[in-house]
Design goal:
heterodimer, A: D-Maltodextrin-Binding Protein, domain 2, 3 domains, 21 strands, globular, B: mainly alpha, MetI-like fold, three-stranded antiparallel beta sheet, 70% helix
Chain lengths: 565, 338
C-alpha cells in the first residue's frame, strides 16, 4: 500500500512538473535541520490586496508570497529570475455533493452517470491552466490513509448513457430528457448550487460545465449560482439537489466519520448528502475508535471503498500548495507534503529559513490578512495561526516527507489502555516531556502546564478544541516530566487529541474570562518587553501593530537553538 | 420656542424651535436606523457559526460558539441587549477578533479621518479652484480641458485607477509605499515618523484627489456660470470693478453657501468614503473594517461600524441644516398661510 501511494505521488509530481514546469512538486530527498531559527527577526507586513502583495514580492518587501492560486500570478512569477516556486500536494478536496435524500439522486445509477460525465482533465486545464490535481478518492493522495484500490468513474459519457439505458431511464428523443422508469414521467429538473461568478468564478463555471455535460446525456441539470451564505443555509437545511464546495482537510482521516456517519445526518451537520449505510457506519466507527494504527488503516480503506461505491460526493480535484520565494534573498524553505512550504504547520521552514547574506538578520514574511486575535485559545483563522504557529508548539512534529510523527516537546510517548468503568476500555496517552524546554520568559515547561492546559480547556468548554477534550476524563502527573492523559473511550486518534497548544500555567491560572483575555496586549508580569502571549516556540511576539505588521524575534530561551538528538 | 413671526403670510419658526425639531427628528432617524441595523443582519441568510466550515468544529463546538456569541438568545432579548449596549456605547465584542468593537473602531478611526481629511481638503480646494478657473474662461480651450478632465476623472472607476497607480508608482517607478500607513517597523524619531506617514499617504490620498476633484470642479463651474449671469454681476461690472474683484468678491462669495453645505453633506464620507481606497492600499481604516465585518457576518462589528456611520450621517445632516438655517431663514418655514 505504502509503495503504491508513493507511485501515485511520484506520478502526480511528474504530472505537475510537466504541466506547470514547477520543480519540487514532491521531493523525497528534502534536507532540513531540526534546530533553529536561523534568522533573528521576522517582520510580517499585512498586505491584503493581491496586486499589492505581488508587487511587494517583486520589490523584495517580502521573501515569500504564500498560497498562490491565480494562474496569471504563477505564470508571472515563473518568469521572475529571482523567484522560486514550491508546490506540494495538499490536504484539500473540491467536490460535487449529491442530496441522496431526494429522488432521482437517491438512485445510485443517476449518481454514477453524473460521475462519468465529469471531465477532470478539461476542468483543470480550462479553469486552472493545469494548476490543480485531479482527485477521485475521498482521502487525498497526500494522506498516508489514501486508498487507490477503489471504484473509479473515469470520464466516459458513452458509459454513462449505457448505465442509464440499462436501468430503464430511456431517453425521450423529443424533449432530450430521460424518463423516470418509476413514474413514467420525464426526470425533474435538478440544480447544482454554486457561489456566484463574482465570488467564486471557477466554482460557478464548473457548475455550468457539469450541468451541460449532464444535459448532454439526458439529465435535466442546471447550475444555480447564488449568494454564498444563502447557499450554505440551503445546504444546512437540505434544500438542494447538488452543490459544489471545497474542504480543507487534515492528515488523519477521521473527517470521514464527520462527513459520512449517519449520526451526522442532521440539519447543519456535516453529512450533507444524507448517506445512511450500516456497513459504512460500522467502518467509520471502527476508524474513529480504532485501538491501533493497523485497525485505523483497515477501517479507512473499507470506508473509502464503500464511499466510492455509493458516491455521496464526486470528488473533483485537490489544490496543491503553491508558494513563491525570493531565492536571491533567502534559502532554507522546506517543501512539505500536505501543508506546503510556507504554511505555519510546516515548522521546518520556520526553523530553517535564512538570509542569503548570512545567518541572523531580519526577513519579511507576507501576511495576506489581519491576524485579529492572538489568543491561542480563541483564535480560529489561518492568518492568526500564521503568527501563533511560530510561538506555540506541540508534543510531536510531522516529518515533511513521510508524514510520520517526530518527537518534539515530548521526547517520547506511550499509548496504552485503562478501565474507566468495569468492562470498559479507555486510552491513556503518556507524554514524556523533554527536559530543558522553557517558556519564552525562562520558566520551565513541565507536566503541571500540560495538566493545567487540558483542565483549562475542559473546564471552560473551549469550542475550538472540543473534539480533543470531550473524551478526556483526567490528567495525572507522576513527576515533573510525565503527564498521563486518560480518555473515557478507546481510540488510536486520542494520541492526537491529547496534544494542545500548551498554556503557561503561571500566566493563565489567573485568567478568569478567557474569551475576553487579550494576552498579546497585556504586558508580561515580570519580564519587560514580553507580553502574556508566550509559548515555547522559536519566535517571540514582539509587536503587533494592527493593519500594519507583526514583529517576531528569535526566542533566546528556545530549546532547539542548537543541534539536538 | 414656538412660532415667533409671520413673514409674508408664512409661519416661521424661531431658531431654537427649528433646532429642537431637527434634533428630535435626528434622534428618531437614529432609532429607526439602529433598529433596522439590528434586523438586517438577522434577516441575512446564514449565521456566523454556519460560516465556520472547518472540520475542527464539531456541531457541539458550533453550539458552544453560538452560546458564547449570545446567538441562542431569543431575538427580542438580543434586541433589548443591543439597544441597551448602544446607548452606553458598549458596541459589544467582535466575533472574529474577540476584542471590544469600540476599541477596534477607535484604533481605525484616526487613519480613516487622516486619509479622508487630506483627500477631502485637497479635492475641494483643487476642485473649487479649477471650477472658478473654468467659469472665468467660458468657451475657451482651457474650459473644455477642465470640463473634459473633470468628467473623465469623475467617470473612471476608482479601483481601476488606483490599481494603475499602484502598478505605476509601486512597481515601474517604485517611489511610494504600496500598503499601510507607516513603514514596518517605523523609523526612529517623531519627524521621521511624520514624514514616513506622509509618504504613505501620497498614493491613497493623491488618487482620491484626482478622482474626486472633477465633481467639485463641475459643480463650482456651473454655480459660478449661473452667478456670473445675474444682474448684480452686470451691475458690478458696470461699476467698473476689475474682473478679479467681480469673480472673487461677488460671484464666488454668492456660490459659497451651497458649497459650504456640500462640505457638511460630504462629511459622512469620513467613515464610508474610503472603502475602496482602504482595500487597495491596505489602509487600516473603518471602511475596510465594515466590509470585512459584513462579509464575515460579524454582527457586533458591523453593527458598531454602521452605528458610527449613522451618527456621522445624522450629525452631518444636522450641521448642514443648522448652517442652512443660519444662512437662509427661508429654510425655517414650518407651514403656510396661518
Amino acid at each position: 500500500m505504502q509503495l503504491k501511494r508513493w507511485i501515485v505521488l511520484a506520478v502526480l509530481a511528474a504530472a505537475l512538473v510537466l504541466t506547470t514546469g514547477i520543480q519540487a512538486a514532491q521531493q523525497t530527498n528534502v534536507r532540513y535541520d531540526k534546530w533553529g531559527p536561523k534568522v533573528d527577526e521576522i517582520i510580517m507586513p499585512i498586505i491584503k490586496e493581491p496586486e499589492a502583495q505581488r508587487i511587494a514580492f517583486e520589490r523584495g518587501e517580502t521573501v515569500v508570497l504564500p498560497g498562490l492560486t491565480r494562474p496569471e500570478d504563477i505564470d508571472r512569477i515563473k518568469r521572475n529570475p529571482n523567484a522560486d516556486i514550491t508546490m506540494n500536494l495538499g490536504f484539500h478536496m473540491f467536490y460535487l455533493a449529491f442530496n441522496m435524500r431526494r429522488a432521482p439522486l437517491s438512485d445510485l445509477v443517476i449518481r454514477q452517470a453524473i460521475a462519468h460525465v465529469v471531465n477532470r482533465d478539461q476542468i483543470i486545464n480550462q479553469l486552472f491552466q493545469g494548476y490543480m490535481l485531479p482527485l477521485e478518492s475521498f482521502v487525498p493522495q497526500s494522506s498516508p490513509f489514501y486508498n487507490p484500490n477503489v471504484d473509479s468513474y473515469p470520464y466516459n459519457p458513452t458509459r454513462a448513457r449505457e448505465i442509464l439505458d440499462k436501468a430503464g431511464y430511456k431517453l425521450d428523443p423529443k424533449s432530450g430528457v430521460r424518463i423516470d422508469p418509476k413514474t413514467g414521467n420525464p426526470l425533474r429538473k435538478m440544480y447544482i448550487l454554486t457561489p456566484t461568478y463574482e465570488v467564486a468564478p471557477t466554482s460557478a463555471e464548473l457548475g455550468r460545465m457539469i450541468a451541460e455535460a449532464a444535459r448532454a446525456i439526458g439529465l435535466p441539470v442546471e447550475a444555480q449560482p447564488m449568494d454564498f451564505p444563502t447557499m450554505l443555509e440551503k445546504i444546512d437545511i437540505f434544500e438542494f439537489d447538488m452543490y459544489l464546495l471545497a474542504w480543507g482537510l487534515e492528515r488523519n482521516p477521521t473527517f470521514l466519520y464527520d462527513f459520512f456517519h449517519s449520526s451526522n445526518d442532521v440539519k447543519a451537520g456535516y453529512n450533507t448528502p444524507g448517506i445512511r449505510n450500516a456497513e459504512l457506519d460500522r467502518a467509520l466507527e471502527e476508524l474513529y475508535y480504532a485501538p491501533d494504527r493497523a485497525t485505523a488503516q483497515r477501517a479507512a480503506n473499507k470506508a473509502q471503498e464503500i464511499l466510492s461505491r455509493e458516491i455521496p460526493y464526486v470528488v473533483l480535484y485537490s489544490r496543491p500548495y503553491i508558494d513563491a520565494w525570493r531565492k536571491d534573498m533567502v534559502t532554507g524553505y522546506i517543501p512539505m507534503l500536505g501543508y506546503g512550504a510556507a504554511n505555519y504547520q510546516n515548522q521546518w521552514t520556520t526553523l530553517n529559513i535564512r538570509r542569503r547574506a548570512g545567518e541572523g538578520g531580519t526577513i519579511r514574511w507576507l501576511l495576506p490578512e489581519e491576524p485579529k486575535n492572538l489568543n491561542v485559545v480563541t483564535a480560529s483563522s489561518a492568518y492568526e495561526f500564521e503568527v501563533l504557529g511560530r510561538i506555540y508548539e506541540g508534543m510531536y512534529a510531522i516529518d515533511p516527507v513521510t508524514m510520520q510523527d517526530i518527537p518534539w516537546l515530548a521526547e517520547s510517548w506511550d499509548v496504552g489502555t485503562w478501565e474507566p468503568a468495569p468492562g470498559k476500555k479507555g486510552t491513556v496517552v503518556t507524554w514524556h516531556i523533554r527536559k530543558g524546554v522553557k517558556w519564552q520568559d525562562g520558566m520551565p515547561f513541565t507536566s503541571a502546564d500540560v495538566k493545567f492546559t487540558i483542565e483549562f480547556m475542559k473546564k471552560n468548554e473551549v469550542p475550538l478544541y472540543q473534539s480533543r477534550w470531550k473524551d478526556i476524563v483526567k490528567v495525572e502527573t507522576p513527576d515533573q516530566y510525565t503527564a498521563k492523559v486518560y480518555f473515557g473511550t478507546q481510540s488510536y486518534w486520542h494520541l492526537y487529541n491529547a496534544d494542545f497548544p500548551w498554556l503557561p500555567k503561571h500566566i493563565w491560572e489567573d485568567v478568569k474570562d478567557y474569551t475576553n483575555f487579550q494576552p498579546w496586549l497585556e504586558p508580561h508580569p515580570t519580564v519587560k518587553g514580553l507580553t502574556k502571549a508566550i509559548g515555547t516556540g522559536p519566535f517571540i511576539l514582539k509587536e503587533y501593530k494592527p493593519g500594519e505588521y507583526v514583529r517576531l524575534v528569535k526566542n533566546p530561551n528556545y530549546w532547539a537553538l542548537k543541534p539536538w538528538k | 420656542m414656538g412660532i415667533t413671526a409671520l413673514q409674508n403670510g408664512v409661519k416661521v419658526l424661531g431658531f431654537r424651535a427649528y433646532l429642537f425639531r431637527r434634533a428630535v427628528s435626528a434622534l428618531l432617524v437614529l432609532f429607526v436606523i439602529i433598529s433596522f441595523n439590528f434586523a438586517v443582519f438577522r434577516l441575512m441568510p446564514g449565521d456566523p457559526s454556519s460560516l465556520i466550515i472547518d472540520p475542527r468544529f464539531t456541531p457541539e463546538a458550533i453550539a458552544l460558539l453560538r452560546q458564547q456569541f449570545g446567538l441562542d438568545d431569543p431575538p427580542f432579548v438580543q434586541y433589548v441587549k443591543y439597544i441597551k449596549n448602544l446607548v452606553t456605547f458598549d458596541l459589544g465584542q467582535s466575533f472574529t477578533s474577540r476584542r471590544p468593537v469600540i476599541d477596534e473602531l477607535k484604533e481605525r478611526l484616526p487613519n480613516t479621518i487622516t486619509l479622508f481629511l487630506t483627500s477631502f481638503t485637497f479635492t475641494a480646494l483643487l476642485g473649487i479652484a479649477v471650477g472658478v478657473f473654468a467659469a472665468a474662461r467660458r468657451g475657451s480651450f482651457a474650459e473644455t480641458l477642465v470640463t473634459g478632465a473633470g468628467l473623465f476623472t469623475y467617470a473612471v472607476p476608482t479601483f481601476f485607477f488606483q490599481l494603475l497607480l499602484l502598478l505605476l508608482f509601486g512597481y515601474y517607478v517604485p517611489i511610494f509605499p504600496i500598503h499601510g500607513t507607516i513603514s514596518a517597523p517605523p523609523p526612529e524619531g517623531t519627524w521621521a515618523q511624520l514624514l514616513d506617514r506622509l509618504h504613505h499617504l501620497v498614493l491613497p490620498a493623491g488618487s482620491n484627489v484626482i478622482i474626486g476633484f472633477g465633481s467639485w470642479a463641475l459643480y463650482t463651474r456651473n454655480a459660478m456660470l449661473e452667478a456670473l449671469s445675474q444682474d448684480y454681476i452686470i451691475t458690478a461690472r458696470a461699476k467698473g470693478l476689475s474682473e478679479r474683484a467681480v469673480l472673487y468678491h461677488h460671484a464666488l462669495r454668492s456660490v459659497l453657501p451651497p458649497i459650504v453645505t456640500l462640505v457638511f453633506l460630504s462629511l459622512p464620507g469620513l467613515v464610508t468614503g474610503a472603502v475602496i481606497t482602504e482595500t487597495i492600499f491596505s489602509w487600516h481604516g473603518v471602511g475596510r473594517y465594515l466590509v470585512d465585518a459584513v462579509l464575515q457576518q460579524d454582527y457586533p462589528a458591523a453593527q458598531g461600524a454602521f452605528y458610527l456611520i449613522a451618527i456621522a450621517v445624522i450629525v452631518s445632516n444636522f450641521l448642514a441644516d443648522l448652517v442652512y438655517g443660519l444662512v437662509d431663514p427661508r429654510i425655517r418655514v414650518a407651514g403656510e398661510n396661518a
